[in-house]
Fold:
Amino acid sequence: MKIAVLGTGAVGITIASKLIELGHQIMIGSRSKTNEKAIEFTNKFDQNASNGTFEEAAFFGEIIFNCIKGEFAIQALTSAEKGIRNKILIDVSIPVNTHNGAPLSLLPELCNTNSLGEEIQKNFPDTKVVKTLNTMWNTLMISPSMLKNGDHTNFICGNDDEAKAKVKSLLNEIGWKNETILDLGDIVGSRGTEATVLLWLRIWGATIGTFSLKVVN
Structure:
């Protein structure tokens, strides 16, 4: 499958590398086709890796991962608007407010009564936005079995059930078991999963080693 990964940070590079390992064709997207991190990434692979602008990558991908920093996501996706129409956009980003320093908070316009996932869906109504993988460390996203044999929870939400089913199938391919994927319903569920970053950061500061969240009932 042709998959676009937008963003050249640790999350984007980690996800893109795993998808290439699984045999998918990946184009990693950034503001410029001469982005050094994107070029360095593509040079690591003999095949199935390329880079381009956000727009070029969006047109390339049958499915698109949004791994852009939350505060820049809408602007970047606007530059790729034609390429993301009628496609599944897997949103992994979190709207962290980096302007006020520690302790980190969420952007006020994208929390409580709104979320980045909702804002993306509102701005790009023809795109099928699915939120997932945003409540954990990036390596755990693509290697769930490294912790308790994968016995922890990955959340998913979105308005389109068919799109969520396709994303779940891709998550299965990555290594997530169906019983560990919890569907929270429509894209409004992003309010909850994005807000877990505030708890996640506190847990990270209080523990040593890899951890995740698990729903027990």
Summary: The longest strand covers residues 25-30. The chain has a mean pLDDT of 96. The two ends are 37 Å apart (CA to CA).
